[in-house]
Amino acid sequence: MTLDEANAELCRHRDLALTAYAHRLLAQGADIHGEQFRADLAKYAGELEAWRRKALDRLRQFVEAMTERPSATLH
Questions:
Q1: CA pair distance 14, 28, nearest whole angstrom
Q2: How far is residue 53's CA from residue 71's CA, in Å, rounded to a whole number?
Q3: How far does Cα 7 stand from its chain's mean position?
Q4: How far apart are CA 62 and CA 75, in angstroms?
Q5: Helices marked H in the chain
Q6: Residue 30, by phi and psi: left (phi above 0), alpha (psi -120 to 50) or beta?
Q7: Cβ contacts of residue 62 below 8 Å, gap of 6+?
Q8: CB-based contact 46:52 (threshold 8 Å)
Q9: What is the CA angle 49-20-45, rounded to 5?
Q10: What does the alpha-carbon distance between residue 45 and residue 39 come to, in Å, rounded to a whole number?
């Protein structure tokens, strides 16, 4: 798997999690046109994006470590 493929997979999971969260908010009666819905969704989207960036950075570090030391492990 390449880093681009890993990023695509992380994006897919980020998007699925955001969609599931939106559905949960709507099921709880949130107004799709309301400010609170948008604020909650934007906050969670930011958290998910931070998770994706951190995961991708760790994967990059691992790849770099493996290039330098093939016996390196991800901690």
A1: 21
A2: 25
A3: 9
A4: 9
A5: 3-27, 35-68
A6: beta
A7: 72, 74
A8: no
A9: 20
A10: 10
Structure tokens that stand for 64 in this block: 């770099």
Q: pTM for the whole thing?
A: 0.79
Distance, CA of 73 to CA of 75 (rounded, Å): 6
CA distance 7 to 21: 21
- Cα distance between residue 66 and residue 59, in whole Å: 10
Chain-centroid distance, C-alpha 12:
8
pLDDT tens figures, 1-42:
789 999 999 999 999 999 999 999 999 999 999 999 999 999
Angle at 5 between CA 4 and CA 9, to 5 degrees: 115
CA pair distance 21, 24, nearest whole angstrom? 5
